[in-house]
Amino acid sequence: MDNNILQQFDERINACYNSRLILVDKPISELLKTLVSRQDYFSILRDAAKTASFSNEFQKSCIMTSDGKRFVLPPSDARIVSLVTGLLFEFDKGNLSIVDFVTTFFPSEHTHDSYIQFCRNILIPFSESFTRLITGEKVPIDFNLTIDTNQTKPLVDKVREDCDYWIRIMIDSVIGDNSISETLRKDSLKMLNGFLHILEINDPIVTNIAWIGLSYTLTNVNKIYRELRELELLLKTYGAIDK
User: Fold this and answer.
1) Predicted model pTM
2) What is the pLDDT of the chain when averaged over all its residues?
3) Which of 25, 33, 32, 45 lies closest to 102, judged by CA?
């Protein structure tokens, strides 16, 4: 195994850890971009996503104690990676306020102290779990592991054809778009072509996590906004991704 395989991941985690609560949005975005743009990193997210849905894990992790609200990570590395990745995406998309989350679950007199607790209790365990998964380090088996496929389901052939149609239009648009950088073009084409392969596999959980990476990467390609929304509507309507 390449000894430097974790270098980029570690740099992104350190950037988050060395940030401050009110400034962490950009480091989180950069971390997520790295996770979905590298095939070796993305494969870890894809496999981890098969353990359980984010919404279910999130609800289980939010508990009330005599000392107030607590956020408790699940017992296995795969579920930790799946949960925290989903949590970071929710922060990045604006669906969940990181300031509210951190100050609610890690209260302190000073917000930076709350953020340090968040890093120590959420980001660092996430980093350690991701590292063990990608290096193949042996970890205890989680006998409570369950595969949750109740919320998503495979696509029928006609819907897959419709999805294929919109993806190929986006590929052509990205190739001809002179307003984007070459880096964004390459990343976008990689994700679009990868999603075509995901449709062939037709695994609902893999489709769900792949969609997160695809939509995140294509956010800055303005010329395909309509096509991306059409694809999202198809996937949500037929239950391939979470609504």
Assistant:
1) 0.68
2) 85
3) 25
